[in-house]
Design brief:
Blueprint (H helix, E strand, L loop, with lengths): L20 E2 L5 E2 L1 E2 L11 H8 L17 E7 L5 E2 L4 E12 L3 E10 L15 E2 L7 E2 L4 E4 L11 E2 L8 E3 L6 E12 L8 E11 L24 E12 L5 E7 L3 E3 L2 E11 L7 E11 L7 E5 L6 E3 L2 E3 L8 H5 L5 E3 L5 E11 L10 E12 L31 E6 L5 E7 L8 E3 L13 E4 L2 E12 L6 E10 L2 E4 L15 E2 L4 E11 L5 E12 L8 E13 L5 E9 L14 E5 L2 E12 L7 E7 L1 H5 L3 E6 L7 E2 L7 E10 L6 E10 L4 E3 L3 E8 L10 E11 L9 E8 L2 E2 L13 E4 L5 E3 L2 E5 L5 E2 L4 E10 L18 E6 L5 E5 L1 E7 L5
Parallel strand pairs: 3-13, 5-15, 17-26, 29-36, 38-46, 52-54
Antiparallel strand pairs: 1-2, 4-6, 6-13, 7-10, 7-12, 7-14, 8-9, 11-12, 14-15, 16-18, 18-24, 19-20, 19-23, 19-25, 21-22, 22-24, 25-26, 27-30, 28-29, 30-34, 31-32, 31-33, 31-35, 35-36, 37-39, 39-43, 40-42, 40-44, 41-43, 44-45, 44-46, 47-54, 47-57, 48-49, 48-53, 48-55, 50-54, 51-52, 55-56
């Protein structure tokens, strides 16, 4: 016997009663039995132990050897086929035969497990699914056929012992009777492998006539063998066709199981094999079903017999692809019969998946597909379950008899995104202080070093972006530029910035650019590096949540710019007024010889193009510093520490007073310059001159000259009998006392007496200065002189009259008693410019 595993949900079954009559001479006299309300019962071995109060049997079975009663034939089945392993219920005609004269209480046991009823049934813990009633389980694993004695016709089918169970006899000349339209519940199995269902049963009877059989449990319904061997077991072949097992179906991936977005082509081999060795199966249709567990909107169902490319959603069956063969293998050939001699059909599927919007966590987009076939047997009945759907998102179905292949999973892989940024100083630069040491390409990029004059200024930068992603369009969502940790947002509105107005969306391989201006400053020779940073995300309708960034730097070096200075020097004649008015100063002034007082004005202006401050560190003017013709006076100048800011408004002005001397045709020209520094470089200014010329002053009288008379007096008291001191009382000219220099009581404003302290020589004699009040002792000689300055100029001076006539110069002396004496002195005339020689 074959053993089958049967799965079910319930545990009860109605058994049929077999009743009927047999005709004489072997001609069947059919009758219909009335079924009683019986439930699945114990199999024969278990019923035997129950009646005989046994716990076990030798070898766990009844050793049935008798052949007194048997079922000779089952025919007129109401079903044409069944599926192996399932419990089926059908009606049929049953022919029962006796090989003895008579037997009582005939009972037929039919196992629902595939294990013969005379064997002790094992407890597998499994239930048996019944066609129309609740399932059954251990130990109620058999259906019973008990002819109902009340329906006996008493020919062959008889009621001999007058109990509830029918008997059989051949006393009336026949040993066979047939019951029509009997309901049979049995396990579909093919024990002898002849492609027809087999009816496996065991018959039990009583060898004696006695009233001991009931249709209800007492303790079991029907009869059990009289002894362990008084029973008969057999297998009958029915006319029920054994439905072939579902074909073996496989789907195998050819090549890679993953492809990069946005598109991938996948190839599969599909094979369908008839596993039956005796029966044909016919394929009516084959379909390929595609779903995605990561995108529930994906569903495609393709007819594999088509010869045309077919697109459903984002999946395309490439039926026209050179490697796709299912259209030629299946197309025009369906229905396609697979015989035991030619059991297999194989073809190749080519499909394309287009997907550029994968999961937002960068995981793979998964696609699961399988092939499903509709298969029938020779009767046109379905072979297997073509409702199988192992990838259904909510109620997947993958029954054991499903006509579906295994599920093949492929993946569309996320392709990372990338962007590049190229940053450089853009040329031609609007700022002329920015320079390139090399050549400039078509993009405006310098292939050498970039410099800017100190202290710096505006630099124009250019940014070139390229979407180097293989698949996705990018959207720039951040663009910054950073110098010394100071960051600016280039997507905001900034003067000189075009980045805020550019298209932020970049297709694959698209290049875009923008420019912006940034102030760059620093120390000389300092390299100022600023970094541009770009961040981009995938376009929203293609986004898997990827982002990318890049940065690039540009270097600008601060170039030293030499300081520049304007130095101006002018001079004026010092008239005692304030020196602040620049209009009083000239490049050249003139003094009368032999010289006079001047003021020099110096002006230093910072004109450095860098705008840096300068510091005065030195001053050169060899004439002022070393010439004997110059005597320095007061000075306001500081040429060693003064700091000057740029611009005329910040010019440094200072003054130096000096007394200078010179003669005509010998100008006093002095050149000066200053030395400055800006901290990086020292520099001398250009020389600047100031000139003092000297006017020639001749001996002629002019309004510019006064006259001076030198009076030499020889007062001699020797040999004249002098015995007293004489005192000089006055010095006179024209009979008028000459006032002392600086006297307030000027009786004669036209002249002055000049007091000099030097000694002068005349005629070989030395003369000291005469002064009023000097005393001349007796018997002595006093040689003295005095100087008379005539002021203002006399237009009609009679020089001779100073010696004779009305204008002699006189020295008046007196003795102690007041007696006066006078004498005339010798006069020498000289000229002087505003004062005595």
């Amino acid at each position: 016997m074959m053993e089958h595993s049967i799965y079910s949900r319930h545990k009860r079954l109605l058994s049929a009663m077999l009743i009927g009559a047999a005709s004489l001479y072997g001609l069947a006299n059919s009758t219909t039995a009335n079924a009683t309300d019986l439930v699945p019962e114990l199999c024969m071995a278990e019923a035997y132990m129950e009646v005989n109060n046994l716990n076990s049997l030798p070898q766990d079975k009844l050793n049935c050897t008798a052949e007194d009663v048997e079922i000779a034939e089952i025919f007129n089945e109401s079903i044409s086929e069944c599926t192996p392993g399932e419990v089926v219920e059908f009606t049929a005609s049953i022919t029962i035969v006796t090989n003895a004269n008579e037997r009582y209480d005939t009972t037929f046991y039919n196992s629902l497990t595939g294990i013969a009823p005379n064997f002790v049934q094992p407890d597998t813990g499994e239930s048996i699914e019944l066609p129309n009633d609740p399932d059954t389980s251990y130990p109620y694993l058999c259906s019973l056929l008990i002819p109902d004695a009340s329906a006996a016709d008493n020919i062959v089918f008889a009621d001999l012992d007058l109990d509830e169970c029918g008997d059989i006899t051949k006393a009336n000349g026949s040993d066979t009777y047939t019951l029509d339209n009997q309901t049979i519940t049995m396990l579909c199995e093919d024990v002898d492998n002849d492609d027809k269902a087999d009816f496996s049963y065991c018959a039990a009877w009583d060898n004696q006539s006695r009233d001991n059989c009931t249709l209800a449990d007492d303790p079991v319904p029907g009869q059990v063998p009289n002894t362990k061997s008084k029973c008969n077991c057999d297998v009958l072949t029915t006319n029920i066709f054994i439905k072939p097992d579902p074909p073996e179906m496989t789907k195998t991936l050819i090549g890679d199981a993953a492809a990069d977005e946005p598109s991938g082509v996948f190839k599969y081999q599909v094979s369908i094999t008839n596993v039956s060795t005796k029966s044909d199966i016919t394929i009516n249709s084959v379909e390929d079903i595609v779903r995605s567990p990561t995108d529930l909107s994906v569903f495609a169902n393709f007819d594999l017999s088509t010869g045309s490319n077919t697109t459903v959603g984002n999946v395309t069956l490439l039926a026209e692809h050179i490697d796709h063969t299912c259209d030629t293998v299946l197309g025009g050939n369906l229905p396609l019969t697979l015989t035991p001699g030619s059991p297999t059909v194989t073809c190749v599927i080519v499909a394309q998946i287009d997907d550029d919007d994968l999961p937002n966590d960068q995981s793979d987009e998964l696609y699961r597909d399988f092939v499903r076939a509709t298969v029938v047997d020779k009767n046109g009945a379905a072979v297997g379950d073509n409702t199988c759907d192992p990838t259904h998102p909510t109620s997947p179905s993958n029954p054991s008899d499903g006509t579906c292949t295994n599920v093949v999973e492929v993946a569309m892989q996320d392709v990372d995104v990338s962007i590049t940024i190229d940053k450089f100083v853009y040329f031609p630069s609007p700022n002329p202080d920015v320079s390139c040491t090399g050549s400039v390409d078509a993009d405006g990029k310098c292939d050498g070093s970039v410099w800017i004059k100190e202290p710096g200024g505006d630099v124009t930068y250019k940014l070139i972006f390229e979407n180097t992603s293989e698949v996705d369009t990018l959207t720039i969502d951040m663009l910054t530029d950073t110098v010394s940790s100071t960051e600016i947002n280039l997507l905001s509105s900034i003067s000189g910035n075009t980045c805020d107005s550019m298209d932020l969306e970049l297709s694959v391989d698209e290049v875009d650019s923008c420019t912006f201006v940034r102030n760059v400053s620093g120390d000389v020779n300092a390299g100022i590096t600023n970094t541009a940073y770009v961040h981009a995300v995938e376009k929203s309708d293609q986004s898997e949540g990827n982002s990318t960034f890049d940065d690039d730097t540009a270097l600008v070096t601060i170039m030293n710019v030499a300081p520049a200075v304007l130095f101006d020097k002018k001079v004026r004649i010092d008239d005692g007024s304030e020196p602040n008015d620049p209009n009083d100063y000239f490049e050249t002034v003139q003094l009368n010889e032999p010289g006079g007082n001047v003021t020099y004005r110096f002006e230093v202006t910072n004109i450095s193009p860098s705008g840096e401050d300068i510091t005065l560190i030195d001053f050169e003017d060899t004439i002022l510093e070393t010439s004997p013709r110059v005597t320095l006076g007061a000075s306001t100048c500081d040429f060693s520490t003064t700091v000057i800011s740029v611009g005329p408004a910040n010019s440094y002005v200072c003054y130096i007073d000096a007394a200078v001397t010179g003669e005509p045709n010998n100008d006093l020209v002095n050149s000066a310059r200053v030395k400055i520094t800006d901290g990086e470089e020292d520099l001398y200014s250009l020389y600047n001159d100031a000139t003092v010329t000297f006017a020639d002053v001749g001996p002629q009288l002019t309004l510019d000259f006064a006259y001076t008379a030198i009076v030499f007096a020889n007062i001699d008291t020797r040999g004249v009998g002098a015995f007293e001191d004489l005192t000089i009382d006055a010095l006179r000219i024209r009979g008028v006392d000459i006032p002392l220099e600086g006297a307030t009581d000027e009786t004669d404003p036209d002249m002055r007496l000049l007091n000099l302290s030097d000694t002068r020589t005349r005629d070989g004699l030395g003369f000291n200065a005469c002064e009023v009040g000097d005393v001349v002792a007796p018997e002595t000689q006093k040689l003295c002189y005095f100087v008379i300055q005539l002021v203002p100029i006399f237009d009609d001076v009679d020089f001779k009259a100073l010696k004779t006539g009305l204008g002699p110069v006189e020295v008046i002396l007196s003795d102690p008693e007041g007696n006066a004496v006078k004498f005339e002195a010798d006069v020498d005339l000289t000229t002087t410019k505003y004062g005595p020689l």
